[in-house]
Amino acid sequence: MNIAVFADIHGRMLLAFKLCARWQQETGQRIDLILQAGDLGAYPSEDTLDWATFRQAKIDPSELGFLLDFVEYDDEVAAMLSLTNCPLLFVRGNHEAHDWLDELEEEATDALFSIDVYQRIWCLRTGIPYTFTHQHESITLLGIGRIGAPASEPDPSKTSYIQAYEQQRLADLCAPTIDILLTHDAPVDFQRSGQGMEEITTLLQQAQPAYHFFGHYGGPARIRLAHNGYTQSCKLADLTWDLKAPGHRLNTGSMGLLNWQSVTEHHFEILTAPWLKKYSVHHWKYV
Predict the structure, then answer these.
(1) What's the rounded Cα separation, in Å, for the pair 43 and 51?
(2) pLDDT at position 174, please?
(3) How far from 44 is each of 32, 118, 284, CA to CA, in Å?
(4) Which residue range or ranges hold the Calcineurin-like phosphoesterase domain (predicted)?
(5) What gap in Å lies between CA 61 and CA 196, rounded to an integer?
(6) Averaged confidence pLDDT in the chain
(7) Closest CA to 212 of 192, 230, 227, 232
(8) Are 4 and 21 in contact (CB under 8 A)?
(9) What gap in Å lies between CA 105 and CA 44, rounded to an integer?
(10) Do the Cβ atoms of 193 and 184 come closer than 8 Å?
(11) Which residues are CB-neighbours of 210 under 8 A, at least 6 positions away?
(12) Quick one: 155 exposed, middle or buried, by C-beta within 10 A (0-12, 13-18, 19+)?
């Protein structure tokens, strides 16, 4: 199976689907699943925006992509989505409408719950393994959403930080067998000294998945070995625009592709195809 991977997209979920459709067109293959490592930008209304998103949306309206394109049905958006048939699975970042997502999650009984009118975008609940099967191939995922509260934070219960019930759910896991760990934050001290989430560090040591995908920290894409000595740890660049490049083209390193056949046969790469540079801040909807 082919799995597209994105980190922070901040409202540009329609762009992510368009890039997957373009990859299919260019390669003659199909994307079976999309994974997104938090900061999806899931805001169902303007009054749910956090201040950072509100401020950034004044500069780039694509930050409001979920609100504009996925809350109410639109024939044009549906036509774009019809070019692919894969679901997008995401974990929560720190920039989401958490109160709204909490309400949806309270009604959920499975590892996933749908958040959009087209039922193409699904939230992967923290600490509940999920197995995705396509034809004769299967892959098991575990998600950890939100970020870890800094030691200096006076209120670690804020909704952008991992919640006590999620921590307990992770603590109750008994040596889970997973292939992919999908998170927003990084392990402690892995990306930046003094930052990260202890629960991610623990899961990587216990489960030793083949891959760990995360985001949150910005900067260029990077693949390296996790501290457990086994997992390929992959942080992609944000799915946004390189404002230093001519034409404000798409950030280099913002899309990855995992080909998964079995636990012993798989390959991940960060895409660098020339066609990715055809997408710019002003023209991406028309490419």
Answers:
(1) 12
(2) 84
(3) 26, 14, 23
(4) 1-216
(5) 30
(6) 96
(7) 232
(8) no
(9) 15
(10) no
(11) 179, 180, 231, 232, 263, 266
(12) exposed
Is beta strand 121-124 parallel, antiparallel or unpaired with respect to 88-90? Answer: parallel
Q: What is the pLDDT of residues 112-136, one digit of tens each?
A: 999 999 999 999 999 999 999 999 9
Strand-pair category, 211-214 with 130-134 = unpaired
- Per-residue tokens: 218: 């910005």
Distance CA 33, CA 141 (A): 12
The average pLDDT across 195-209 equals 96
Walk me through the domains of the chain, giving residue ranges and CATH numbers. 2-286 (3.60.21.10)
Token code pair at residue 78: 């549906």
Q: Can you read off the two tokens belonging to residue 220?
A: 């260029």
The answer to whether the pTM exceeds 0.90 is: yes
Could you identify the residue written with the tokens 């997209």? 9
Cβ burial, residue 60 (10 Å; 0-12/13-18/19+) = middle
Q: Model confidence over 208-255: pLDDT tens digits?
A: 999 999 999 999 999 999 999 999 999 999 999 998 888 899 999 999
Cβ neighbours of 174 (radius 10 Å)? 5
Question: How far are the Cα atoms of 108, 207, 210, 269 from residue 174, in angstroms, in the given order?
Answer: 22, 9, 18, 31
Beta strands in the chain (DSSP E): 2-6, 33-36, 88-90, 112-114, 121-124, 130-134, 137-144, 180-183, 211-214, 222-225, 232-235, 256-262, 265-270
